[in-house]
Protein: Dihydrofolate reductase
Organism: Pseudorhizobium tarimense
Amino acid sequence: MSRVPVSIVVAVSENGVIGRDGGMPWRLSTDLKRFKALTMGKPIVVGRKTLESFGGKPLPGRPHVVVTRNADFAVDGAVRAQSVEDALAVAQQIAADTNATEVSVIGGGEIYHQALDVADILYVTHVDTTIPDGDTTFPPIDPAIFEKREEAAYPAGEKDNFPTRFAVYVRRAAAN
């Protein structure tokens, strides 16, 4: 089985905040549409708390692998994994079985931190604001590891709290 790329899909404030009080500290309808387009049809790796933050049910059209140490955790339409490493292996198998082109990691904070070492692509919505009271962060993106391949600015839409910049980063080839 060949490995499909692992992507991280995340929205990050200027000061690295991605969450507050178990949810997102903004309303970005434009970004939610992009998120849906990026993840539709692809297996997604998600932490239990993040799954609970969007209602505790899998998002339609995407096989879910939920990372949790709770052996009793069960949700229809989701597979449980005890670690990010196990979740990525399960998601790779789902991708192979469904001809998906990527595995998408969608959070939360601890899942992102662990998946960053194996991620091939980062789809980052840079939210043009500072969130002073955030409690979950995304690590700084190291330009020595990830090359920014594209970036586009988007003004705040009718249902957006803030303007954003959408960027795609690709892991640089390892130096020999």
